[in-house]
Amino acid sequence: MSDPSRLARRSLLTGGAVLGAGALAAACTSNAPKEDAAATQNVASGGDNDKPGAKVTIGFSAPAADHGWIAAIAKNAAAQARRYSDVTFQAVQPTNDINQQISAVESLIAKKVNALVILPNEGKQLNQVARKAADAGIPVVNLDRVFPDKLSYRTWIGGDNYGMGVAAGHYIGRKLKAGNASNPVILEIQGIATLPLTQERSKGFADALATYGYKVTARQDAKFTVESGNQVAGNLLQAHKKIDAIWNHDDDQGVGVLAAIKQAGRKDLFMVGGAGSANAMREIKAGGVLEATVTYSPTMASSAVRIARLIAQNKGMADLVEQEVPQSITLASETVTRDNVDRYLPLGFES
Fold first, then answer.
1. Per-residue pLDDT band at 127 (split at 50, 70, 90)
2. Per-residue pLDDT tens for 44-69?
3. Domain 12-159+298-319: assigned CATH number
4. Are 226 and 252 in contact (CB under 8 A)?
5. Domain residue spans in the chain?
């Protein structure tokens, strides 16, 4: 992800148009109660592959839903599975404890499920148990945080972390360049600094800014939580009396970041968010400090369940010529602004 020549790439989620259309339709036409509608808004249907086939059991493991994006991951996965009469969905207790997640996945292996969808707390630490599943003949769909050993998973699906940074860097770089900014103060608030996905986001951001002759002035991580976002932002605001722009990696922690900015009464800056939460999009629509967010959609969980079902049933993807599901699928990172926010708002998750 470190090659600057990749700045212009645009990754493609196969069937993304179908996914988006299905999600929009669900959001606009559902007669379900509000909570149920939110849980099912990011599901999709399409093609003969959706016709009932061999009955399969799909196991699912993810971290605890301690913030909006992870909560949306779990809801989307379960909602997608409910669409299929041939799928039994077995979700284990979500946890942020590595050893507990390993034990939970081992329980699914012991039950001999037909496929596994795993969003690991940390890819390296869960790699061994994923490999155990693969060696037992259970295909693993690795969601988001990647296992380092490709033999540990059949297919990986996730967001374009480098592309997120690139998108944020281009938005900030273009705006500052248009304003003839010289030596601007650009701050970056990461999620968890030790995660490879965070490092890829930072690399993309730095590479994009460099094309405008800019660089990050200060960087600090905020652990993906509202509380840490508020504390980190407050410290950065005190340390920098002049700020031109902030890129915040995560819209969940962005709730705290925005609160700190508003409390400090700072109007000398603009901010770009990350992931595409509904509350961030509402802030963008209202106008103010938050001008944009770059997507990292939890719809990937819906797609992961669909992919696991196809693999377990020995099917390929209907829109592809190839007979089998691809080894990796990367979602495109899209920039949401006031100009296009109404189109993306139905797909936003609640922080």
1. very high
2. 555 689 999 999 999 999 999 988 99
3. 3.40.50.2300
4. yes
5. 12-159+298-319, 161-295
